[in-house]
Specification:
This is Orphan protein. The chain is 46% helix and 19% strand. The protein is of the alpha+beta class. It has one domain. The termini are far apart.
């Protein structure tokens, strides 16, 4: 779909990122990583997705949540929403996790370069 949806109709994808994915000192860097990844994720499916990467401090909260206009969606409803854009939820999440891995590597490389 080439036309961008209004903000209130976009699917908000809240993704909680474990500090441990950034290594043993991940807790010190998780918030800056989430800001970094938010800027990068804005480039992906931004015509119908709003990305919201946040640190996952509370493991009792779901890793991923979907909502539209602040209304939480079940996985089934999120799947139906994505189907409209010819996306399948499991593939969408798998693609997101692949991108997240790339972003982690990019972030850690930049962090290492600034420490040198």
């Amino acid at each position: 779909m080439s036309t961008e949806l209004p903000k209130e109709k976009k699917l908000t994808v809240l993704c909680r990122v474990e500090p441990g994915c950034l290594g043993p000192d991940g807790l010190d860097h998780i918030e800056s990583f989430c800001r970094f990844s938010h800027q990068e994720l804005k480039k992906i499916d931004s015509d119908f997705i709003k990305w919201l990467p946040l640190p996952r401090y509370d493991k009792s909260l779901a890793e991923m949540e979907y909502s539209v206009d602040s209304k939480l969606l079940s996985r089934e409803k999120a799947s139906q929403y994505l189907a409209y854009f010819k996306c399948e939820l499991d593939e969408f999440e798998e693609h997101f996790h692949d991108k997240l891995s790339t972003l982690i590597n990019d972030f850690l490389a930049k962090k290492k370069a600034t420490q040198s």
